[in-house]
Amino acid sequence: MSAPAVSVEGVSLRVGAFALRDISFSLAAGETFVILGPSGAGKSLLLETLAGFYRPSSGRILIGGRDLTEAPPEARRIAFMFQDYALFPHLTVAQNVAFGLRFSPRRKGAEPLDALLARLGLEHLGARKPMHLSGGEQQRVALARALAMDPTLFLFDEPLSALDARSRDTLRSELKTFLNRAGVPAIYVTHDQLEALALADKMAVMKDGALLQTGCPAEIFNAPASEAVANFVGVETVLEGKVLSVSDGMAAISVASQVLHVLANDAAKPNASVLACIRPEDVALARTTHPGSSVRNQFQARVTAVAAAGPLFKISLDAGFPLVAYVSKQSYLELGLAPGADLIASVKATAVHLIGRAS
Amino acid sequence: MGSEPTRRQHYAQPRGLMLVFSLVGGLLLLFIALPLLRLFGAQSAASLMRVAAMAEVRSSILLSVEAALLTTVGAALLGVPLAYLLARSSFRGKGLVEAIVDLPLAVPHTVVGIALLFVFGRTGIIGAPISALTGYQFWGSAGGIVIAMLYVSVTYTVNAARVGFEAVDPRLEKVARTLGAGRWAVFLQVSLPLAARGILTGLTLTFARSISEFGSVIVLTYYPMTAPVKIYDLFLQFGLGDSSAMAALFLAVTLSLFVLFRFLFSPRRDAEKRRG
Q1: What's the CATH fold of domain B45-273?
Q2: Architecture of the domain spanning A6-233
Q3: Residue partners of B59: CB distance under 8 A and separation at least 6
Q4: Is A14 helix (H, G, I), strand (E, B) or coil?
Q5: Which CATH architecture has domain A237-356?
Q6: A86 vs B174: CB contact, 8 Å cut-off?
Q7: pLDDT at position B272
Q8: Complex ipTM, two decimals?
């Protein structure tokens, strides 16, 4: 096995109120590493330290086998994508994209800038100023500007968090396609769980400057290693599944031994691997099935654990797959929810969110 | 149709507060403009021509313009670096630095002139050794004029340039560095062009303040005479007639330069919108 493309070893640092505590991870070529964490966790500080704006008090940063711990940002060839893309407002699209070439000559055999602009669908925008571009175009200009310098690593600092829900979905899938094709390792920080699930080959949960758990997305969501991780990611049931069929806007997904009927989206292509995500407040519990109910997914389920969660109760179930529900205190008492109790768990087809997996 | 006239009425007929403020504002504008208009109005073509024909008058106006331009260049070279530091870094004693920058605004200009004599004058701590070493004297030379002008006007450049730099998103500078630009390149190719309008606004104010300076210049350097000094000289020697004619002439020159700079460097709307 070859050496990892990116290797971060025990990086620690304190800057004002923020700190990084013994951060270690490694990335293979082309891998996307998503760091999920609440604001204030130190995610941005970690990215800026990797980019060279802060010097770790201990630890090493190796990229492509080179030790870059002491190198200034301009010597690292690490592309940084900020939330609003930070395009230079005084330069045209073409000048933005060519900015990095003012300081280092193009690698021999590199893709010509024209071709790069064309590949990202920007060829007709070269003379425009960034302020006249849509959000999607701005993202592509920022990606092209970063690609032109032939980066060894991409860093993304919540690039989608300022957008409305619809553009976020569109840009997220554009970004995913881009990352799959670029073959450059990427570190992506976010507080959005869906974003993490959609983009991550590998992910970690970060809190108070430390990576609490690192692993593949399903592992972290379904088998949180600590209470802190569970508290942060535990709001979703995330199930690995396969699309069986798609028709009339509905998709049938096999999950463990069960079949979920869900509203089809872009990810619902026959035979595709998907993650099915269900929020606990969308899971309804009852003693018996309602014959006339329009709810598509009804499962026989057994309670495996009960825990108080603020004013609600968090009920862990085995429905042929792990499932988490939130119920009110009243329902909790009426249904007699205790470990071992048998119930019917139902989930509306519209309450299941499908996320495509790179297969 | 229905809402249009109402809306127009709403904007077109200021009532109450807006009306009172408009009247007060109008009075203030009149207060500023009236003396200058009267100064122009009181001149006869004959006296203007006569004064304009005097070689000393023309050379003093030219000297004022040259010295003010030189001062503006000096303010750019000395003021912009400090403005960038103040905009981008926090350090111990920053409040003191800011107070020192603003200090010239609070010192009477005659006092500035006297204080400058102690440094750049015949026996001044800089003036004396430079005079001894090179023979150059700040008194009685354009150098003294520029120094007096710079002292009273550089504040405007530092403060306006600082506001300009503060409006530049630090992430633009960071992203430039990740793209391979060193600190100097980032400053020259990203920060400076994006702060240009703020800097030029400050330089315009510095120029205007310099060319109109009288008190500190006359104390430090009576000769060669700048236009304000020459006007005062004419006033003392010949009264209001010639001095007011020259005043009108000089005012026409400074106002046209000021209007020209304002026109060239005023923030355009599209540039403002996306400065961050």
Answers
A1: MetI-like fold (1.10.3720)
A2: 3-Layer(aba) Sandwich (3.40)
A3: B224
A4: strand
A5: Beta Barrel (2.40)
A6: yes
A7: 44
A8: 0.79
